[in-house]
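Supplementary notes for students who missed Thursday's class. We covered one full example, reproduced here. Read the sequence, then the structure, then the short commentary at the end.
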Amino acid sequence: MAILVTGAAGFIGFYLSLRLLEAGIPVYGIDVMNDYYDVSLKEGRLAQLKTFSDFSFEQIDIGDRTAMSQLFERQSFERVVHLAAQAGVRYSLQNPLAYADSNLLGFVNILEGCRQSQVEHLVFASSSSVYGKNKKVPFATDDRVDHPVSLYAATKKSNELMAHAYSHLYGLPITGLRFFTVYGPWGRPDMAYFKFVDAIAKGKPIDVYNHGEMKRDFTYIDDVVEGIIRVMDHPPSPSTTAEATAQNEAATQSKVTSASDTSAPYKIYNIGNHSPVTLMDFIATIETAMGKKAEKNMLPMQPGDVPATYADVQDLMDDVGFKPSTPLSVGIQKFVDWYQDHYSKS
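Structure (token representation):
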């Protein structure tokens, strides 16, 4: 039985689908193929997936209720990995309705399809953006995330709440993954590392926000996919009433409500490198990989941005025995090599 991967032509969806197909696992991919960024990248990823006989694909908008309902009626999926979404913090300031259509309505369509077809495990993409400007580091899943600073982050927090409701009401096993700044070959052109490499290659200045006073927990794509696959095979089980009561009492006493302290078969994990890097060190790593210095245009903090991200991945280690570990220098060199090869052929 095929695994449904939404956003299969997207960055993470492509790598996950490829990994599953290489392991002989059938994948049914869907993607809207919109023009939020260069569609040729999506087409290039999709072309590689279509070389596998076990790969099926439909161009579907997850916000289309009828199309999604028909998909779940036609096909049977044991597991669903939901990665499709309108991405980007800054773009959410320009086109908020795109986030409502895809990230809110689209997610309800996924939840309802999984409920109606009794999917064994739904894994969905959340984001480190839900932590907002939390000052406590590293960010842990039992931290409060009630103050998002972008609409994108608010939609991801909403996804977590909707998922918990469905898990509680219908016993649907659901796991949410808060990704921390994913990067690598075939990545998204709207991400800083892609923009920096592209600008440096073309002899253009790079925009450095908050005058470089930022930190990010950069996570290499292979580590993210490994985390997804391990979690896919580890659906959450509902806690016993006694356990749930004890958890809720502890949460009340400490005035913290964990995202995973629940009697529902529901869990949230961080997937990050647990090793934040300053923006200036990040740029220096790119310069080393390219053998070329960047001309820097120092700018103030942008609306919706946060000064730092830093993942606590202890729960991931405890439950599935994995934590991301690819060094930034290794991952950036792989991206630069891909970029130079890919665009030399364009």
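Commentary. The longest helix spans residues 96-116. The first strand starts at residue 3 and ends at 6. If anything here is unclear, bring it to office hours.
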